[in-house]
C-alpha cells in the first residue's frame, strides 16, 4: 500500500476523532432538532487562575464537551436507534415502537404528524 | 483527563497529533513535554509544580550518580529516600494518621485531628520511573540523560504518566536519546492498538462495571450467592479490560509518537498458576519489583526461608503500592502465600493436573483475590462468606441482552489465546495487517473506524465511565 494512502488513513482517523468538535463549530443550531428537555445547557465558567487551580473550569469544559455539543441530540438518537435495532432496547417510556417500518416514534411527535396529514 | 473521555479523544488528542506531526523533528520532544504538562495540569493543577520541581531536583541529583564521582551510593540513597518519602507522605500519611487516631481513641485518648493530604495523580507510577532512572544510571546500565527535556520526557510523557505501563529507563533510554521520526506502519499500528484499547474499555469494561454497580446497589446483606459470584466474576473481567484497555491505549499512543513501551498484559486469565499469573498480569510492575526489589534482596539465590520471606515482602510492597488500605495489603499477602505454596510440594501436584484444571484453579484464586482487592476488608469477609453459603441461585435483577452480548465478547477474548497458535496469531496480527499483507488494511481500517465512531457515540451518550486504576 502506498504511503499516501496510509497517510490519508491516519489523517482520516484523526478527523473522525475531531469530528464532534468540528461539527460543533460548523453546524447551525437550527439544523438540529433538540432533545425534549433531557439535557440542560451548562453555564460557562470563566477561565481564571482560580478556576483553573480549583479545576472548576476543567470540569465545566468537560461537561460542555460531553453534554452541550450541537450534535449531541443526533448522537443520542443514533445510539437509541442502534440499541433498538441491535438489542431491542428502547430508552423512553413514551415511545411508540414501530417495527414494521423500523423506526422509533416519540409520542410527543405523533400529534404533529397527524396534523400534517 | 482520562483517555476514554470526550475531552481527550475529540480535543486533546487530535490537537496534540496535529501539532506533533506538523512540527520539525527537533521540536517534537518539546511538543510531547508541553502537552504532557497540559495533560497533567488539567487533572492536577496544584501538583504540576510539585512534579516539575521534584523532577528538576532528581535530574540534578542524577548527575552525581554517573561515572566515577565520589559518594555515588550516598546520592543514590538520597534519591531513593526522597522519592519513596514523598510517595509515603502523599499516599500513606492519611492511612497512618487515621489508624493511629483510631488506636488512640480505642485506648481512651482524644481523636487526633489532621488535615487530609491530597494525592497527586499517578504518583505511584512516576515515582517508580524516577527510581528506575536513578538505579539504572547508578548501575551504569545506561548512560544518564544530558538534557533535562529528555529526562522530563521519560518521567512525564502523557501516554504512560498516570496509569503506566511502568517503563524502566533501560527500556526507553536508547529511544529517547536517538529519537527518530517513527515509521508510518508504526503510526497505523499504534492507531489500531489505541482503538482496540478504547473499545475494550468503553464496550467491555464498562458493561461489566454496570453489573458490578448493580450488585453493589443490592448490598452484601441482601444479595444471593448467585449475585455475589456474578459480581465477583464481573469485577474480575472489568478490572482486566479496564486496565489492559488503558495499557493498550498507552502503548498505541506511544507507537504513534515513536516510542515502543513494554507490554503490560498477556492473557492473564489463561495462567496455570499464580506464579504464571504474575508473569502475565501488570507485567511492568512485576518486572520493576523483580529488578529493583526482589533481586537486590537476594532473589532466588538464597536459602528457602529467606526466599519465602523475599516473596512475601515483595508482594506486601506490591499490595501497599496499590493503595493505603488494609485490603490492598491483604490482597498482596494473599498472592504471596499462593506463590510460596506453589514452590512447595503443592506446586508439584498442581503441575500434574490437566491444564484446564490448572487454569480453573488460578482463575478461582484470582476471583477471590479481586474480592479482597475491591472492598474494605470487613465487607470483603462478609462478601466471601456470602459466596460460599449457597443461599440462592437466582440473580436479583435482569441483565439486558446488550450487556450479555458485550460481556460474552469479553469472556471469549480473555480466553481466546488458550491455543498457542491463536495467541501467536493475535500477537502477530498488527504486523501482518500493517506490513506483510497490507491489503488486509482495507478490511481492518474500516472496522477500526467504525469502532472509533461507536466509542465516541457511547462516550457521548453514557454517563457511566469509571476507571479503576486512575486512583493509583
In short:
The complex is a heterodimer of chains A (117) and B (472). Chain A is mostly helical.
Please tag this protein with its features.
heterodimer; A: 117 residues; mainly alpha; two-stranded antiparallel ribbon; 5 helices; 55% helix; 7% strand; flat; B: 472 residues; 2 domains
Explain how this protein is built.
With 117 residues, chain A is mainly alpha-helical. Chain A has one domain (3-90). In chain A, 55% of the residues lie in helices and 7% in strands. Chain A has a two-stranded antiparallel ribbon with strand order 1-2. In chain A, strand 1 (95-98) and strand 2 form a beta hairpin. The longest helix of chain A has 24 residues, at 3-26. The radius of gyration of chain A is 19 Å and the shape is flat. Chain B has 472 residues and is an all-alpha fold. Chain B has 2 domains: 6-180, no CATH class; 185-471, no CATH class. Chain B has 19 helices and no strands. In chain B, helix 1 packs antiparallel against helix 2 and helix 8 (184-218) crosses helix 18. The longest helix of chain B has 35 residues, at 72-106. Chain B is globular, with a radius of gyration of 23 Å. The model of chain B has no long low-confidence stretch (mean pLDDT 86).
Q: Give the total of beta strands of chain B.
A: 0
> Number of folding domains of chain B?
2
Rg of chain A, rounded, reads 19 Å
How would a crystallographer describe the biggest sheet of chain A? 2 strands, antiparallel
Provide the succession of SSEs of chain B.
HHHHHHHHHHHHHHHHHHH
In round numbers, the mean pLDDT of chain B is 86
**Unreliable stretches of chain B, pLDDT < 50, 5 or more residues?**
none
Structural class of chain A comes to mainly alpha
Percent in helix of chain B: over 70%
